[in-house]
Amino acid sequence: MNGTFPSEERDVSVSILTTGATLRGTLNIPGDARGLVLFAHGTGSSRHSPRNRYVASVLREGGLATLLLDLLTEEEEAIDLRTRHLRFDINLLAERLVAVTDWLRGRPDTSTLSIGYFGASTGAGAALVAAARRPGAVGAVVSRGGRPDLASAALPAVSAPTLLIVGGYDLPVIEMNREALGRLRVEKELVIVPGATHLFEEPGTLEEVARLARHWFEHHLASVAEEQKATKGPVA
User: Fold this and answer.
1) For the whole model, what pTM was predicted?
2) CA-CA distance, 209 to 31, in Å (whole number)?
3) Please, what is the angle between helix 90-106 and helix 122-133, to 10°?
4) Residue 186 to residue 235: CA distance in whole angstroms
5) Is 169 left (phi over 0), alpha (psi -120 to 50) or beta?
6) What are the two backbone dihedrals, phi and then psi, of residue 23, each rounded to the nearest 5 degrees?
7) Which residue ranges form the domains of the chain, and what is each CATH number?
8) Could you give the CA distance from residue 16 to residue 85 in angstroms, rounded to a whole number?
9) Which of 49, 57, 161, 199 is most buried, by CB atoms within 10 Å?
10) Phi–psi pair at 140, nearest 5 degrees
């Protein structure tokens, strides 16, 4: 990863009350934002992850607001490191994503922004389940090294255009994503990044993920924003 971070003077730390937990996040809204991307990462990562922050910075360069979010509390993360249970509780993670989505739609500074989900690992499964539960609110989904198989029953109900990105060396996850692609009934694409492993740590691979995600969100969230502007109303 060779990219540099732009100034983060607009970063705002937020606390979001959901059922049973207060979630922490970092919200950044550039001027004239055309949409907002909510990050749902897997366990072992966080809103402070250099990988997540790098991708978020590239999205903001494209005029997209970002919310880097921890779906588990610090106490839950500590438990999950021992049990490896909560990271696979897709229903819990999806419920929290839905709650945060509703929170964003209730804020004056984000209520009119079309929302996208960027999910990694098990967070991608949760993002797809949440997208199925809020079809009118979510305009696009991007999965990086994700586990869409964990959202198997919800996949046919997803209405948001979905991009699945997998590393070329991440063979088991490639097959999971191919199977999930067949169950999606929306505009969809599977991109395999050559030479990349699960975390996209190889030179140039995370940059490619960020480029692909930015293009997908710019295209789909901007189109929602244009429709909204034409009707002069908020996203349904």
Assistant:
1) 0.89
2) 24
3) 60
4) 19
5) alpha
6) -95, 145
7) 23-229 (3.40.50.1820)
8) 23
9) 161
10) -170, 155
